[in-house]
Design goal:
By secondary structure, this protein is an alpha/beta fold. Helices cover 41% and strands 19% of the residues. The strands form two sheets. It has an eight-stranded mixed β-sheet with strand order 1-2-4-3-5-8-9-10, sandwiched between helices. Helix 1 packs across helix 9, helix 2 crosses helix 3 and helix 4 packs across helix 5.
Length: 276
Amino acid sequence: MSCPDCYRGSVHEGQPRGQVTKAYGLDTYVVNPADGRPAKGIVVLLPDAFGWEFVNVRLLADSYADKGDFKVYAPDFMKGHPAPLYMMESMKIVSSDVGIFTKIRHGFRVLCAILPFLFINWPSKAWPRVKGFFEQLRKEEGASLSVGAAGFCWGGKQVLLLGRGDKIDGRPLIDVGFTGHPSLLSLPADINNLTLPVSFAIGDHDSYLSVAQAENIKAIVEAKPELARGEVTVYPDCGHGFCVRADHKFPDAVKQADDATDQCIAWFNTHFKTSA
């Protein structure tokens, strides 16, 4: 299952600079490298529970395009049914010292939002949408450009499914993956099944993945053959969701999130040089 921290965090300020279009069958936010620079490759962002329209996700896509010179897609893999943003406030209230009836009311509100989100977007139901997008992408733009997948929380599971190496026209759907604080995992099976290189960013206070589990993931991915070898970076004093929903009132939280962004970009740059 997912964890309560999958639905906690802060909403960031900023104006995304990309555009919304239809790409490979899905409504998609797309952003290109700034100043007309050519794209080094394509990065597809698989979001946390709050989906492709979440401003934090779009601003993160902008960062990948600006810092990495990637063309970035953030598709609607959730069929228009992400977790509603009001859950963040309700989760705060449920965890606070308010009266019991207020807690019950907001707890019921959270439950009514989580259940349909999980029903529609359970990994096995979402996978055909994700796979179909990447199949079309690989056939077209991905025929000449490297393709990376960056997934967070909910999207992290989908990155690991992509990392199994499913192919179209004899080529894997992606060349390389990155995930920040993935959820809904089957451990250790999802890690053992990886045949492509995946980089992990995990906080040492993650309520879904313990430090011991992170170390087990690290041991497995670092022991894989060179072409499938991954990495794990554990970030101190970070909880689940820190890559996307860090509270910008705290400079340390911003730095940790920025470091994870840099980790992702460096990972893709390394593998994009040698792939496709």
